[in-house]
Amino acid sequence: MTDSKPKGYAVELYFDKKMEDEIFSFRESLYRLGLNPVLGNLGDRPHVSLAVFGDVNIDQIVKITSSFTKKCKQIPAYLDAFGAFPTDSNVIYLLPVPRQTLLEIHKHYHELLHKDKIHSSHYYLPGQWVPHCTLEFELQDDQFNLAFQLCKKHFSPIRGTFASIGVIAFRPIEYLAEFSLPKQDIE
Questions:
Q1: Rounded CA gap, 163 and 102, in Å?
Q2: In sequence order, what E strands does the chain have?
Q3: Residue pair 13/50 in contact by the 8 Å Cβ criterion
Q4: What is the CATH number of the domain that holds 36?
Q5: What is the pTM of this model?
Q6: 157 within domain boundaries
Q7: CB–CB of 77/159 below 8 Å?
Q8: What is the pLDDT confidence band of residue 3, given thresholds at 50, 70 and 90?
Q9: 186 in a domain, yes or no?
Q10: Stretch (H or E) spanning 111
Q11: What is the domain extent for residue 17?
Q12: Total of domains in the chain
């Protein structure tokens, strides 16, 4: 890890390589059409966060995540819509269809955290979580409006699988661990 203390940590679901490349390509197309990159300049991989933490024993999170992924399998990932969070951060995101398998993975991961008395940000708790794949954030209002209009005009659904789970530190982003999910017959 870097010498500076991270702002936080996250556990993230990653897409298969083809789907990740499609998301990167869509994000890059927005930049070519005039959107200024913020997240795109941070080295962020497309993902859906399962949990986000402030100060936490990161070795314990990596251990829990490693053990957890051995009980999981790859699941379908359908990014079928886009949306925004009504916050000062002006977040625009792609929305995965909240299939039961995705919700179960999320719930079971948080059960393990609860068992070990580890607390995630309340935005990521079961029953409050809005699964999303952030396209951009911290946009000025004019850029946010542009992003929304560009998505409305150019977005089409992206399909694939959730293929791995990773643990990161952020600001700056540092990839700490990644665990592949075994393949299964996809529905």
A1: 12
A2: 8-15, 47-53, 75-85, 91-96, 133-136, 158-170, 174-180
A3: yes
A4: 3.90.1140.10
A5: 0.93
A6: yes
A7: yes
A8: low
A9: no
A10: helix 100-115
A11: 8-180
A12: 1
